[in-house]
Design brief:
Keywords: Membrane, Transmembrane, Transmembrane helix. Helix content is 51%, strand content 3%. It has 351 residues and is mainly alpha-helical.
């Protein structure tokens, strides 16, 4: 059952401001700040190695799928059982590596982008490879870009296709002098472009040495699964019929930070789970590592009170609800809630 506040009428978080979080009962803001780097360096260094090892083990097992399937099928290459075993094993590999990738490598890169893995910027840069654009305009309609369609994502990165209209056409994420970046970030963009070029070169060499089908099975299928997980949990966090969008002077950082949902249905103990179940805390304290976010959530919930959003709805139902109830927002107004295709909203703004 969904564990949320009443959906009939709701007030937006007009009384919750950043200053209130500096005086949290039983745990001061300074104490919360100490949680940023409260674990030892060895533990933080272990995290990337653990998830990299996980991926390598799965990749090695995947190289043995043909041999194992052939052995089980007794050498009959045309047996139905062989085909079933092969597809089942490939699906398991893609799901395992994709889920492990998004639960490990991608989310660790995200953490590094927020400088949450180390007090040393160069360590975060090495782990994250590229600078990460922090969500500092969350749920602000004039500045917060929504997701471009999957096949258009590359065009969005290359020339701002369907991106923020504040930037001119052909504003590129790959151009160091782009208005998207500060002058001091340009060197990092160059390094990021080099890293992307190296990865593309390695994939091209591997394709030349093996085959396109090999690259598809070992790399692109897990990549698609990872993309699916990333879009799914970020979509559930930020597209909900009970959270508002803001325009103009109605937006504040505190309001934007509160406009997200902690998805308890994805609870677990890894980096992927912590960034979904404690996302409200992550919005307010982006530099706190994921393993300390549960403590931050526990500390800020009494302060946020009714303005803290969480959801224990099963994932598939939550997706269906967001797909059907979060169709559009009106062109007019300063505090808006999603409406469905018939123009009906779940939330009515109280005054």
């Amino acid at each position: 059952m969904r564990q949320r506040r009443s959906l009939q009428t709701v007030k937006t978080a007009t009384k919750v401001h950043i200053k209130r979080l500096r005086y949290i009962p039983g745990r001061t803001y300074a104490t919360l700040s100490l949680l940023t780097y409260s674990s030892d360096l060895q533990a933080r260094a272990f995290l990337p190695l653990r998830h990299l090892a996980f991926t390598c083990v799965f990749c090695y097992i995947a190289t043995q799928i043909d041999v194992i399937a052939d052995t089980i099928a007794g050498g009959d290459r045309h047996a139905v059982s062989l085909r079933d075993i092969w597809y089942g094993a490939r699906s398991g590999y893609s799901t395992g590596v994709g889920r492990g990738y998004v639960g490990g490598i991608w989310c660790l890169g995200h953490e590094a982008g927020h400088e949450a893995l180390s007090p040393y910027p160069w360590v975060n840069a090495v782990i994250g490879i590229a600078p990460h654009l922090c969500p500092n305009a969350i749920l602000r309609l004039a500045r917060d870009p929504s997701y471009p369609p999957f096949l258009w994502l590359s065009l969005y990165l290359i020339h701002n296709r369907k991106g923020n209209p504040r930037y001119a056409p052909w504003t590129s994420h790959f151009k160091p002098s782009s208005l998207l970046f500060k002058p001091e970030q340009r060197r990092s963009i160059v390094i990021s472009n080099i890293a992307i070029g190296v990865m593309i070169t390695l994939l091209a060499i591997y394709t030349y040495k093996t085959s396109w089908s090999s690259v598809w099975c070992y790399y692109f299928l897990p990549w698609l699964v990872a993309h699916n997980w990333i879009v799914m949990f970020t979509y559930l966090q930020h597209s909900d019929p009970t959270i508002p969008y803001y325009r103009k002077d109605q937006w504040t950082f505190a309001r934007g930070a509160l406009a997200t949902v902690d998805d308890l249905c994805l609870a677990g103990s890894d980096v992927f789970s912590s960034t979904t179940t404690d996302h409200v805390a992550h919005h307010f304290f982006a530099t706190v590592p994921f393993y300390n976010l549960p403590q931050v959530t526990e500390a800020i919930r009494p302060v946020l009170g009714e303005y803290y959003n969480y959801d224990s709805t099963p994932v598939l139902y939550a997706l269906w609800r967001s797909f059907t109830q979060c169709t559009f927002v009106e062109d007019e107004g300063t505090i808006l809630f999603f409406k469905n295709q018939y123009g009906d909203a779940v939330i009515e703004l109280s005054t």
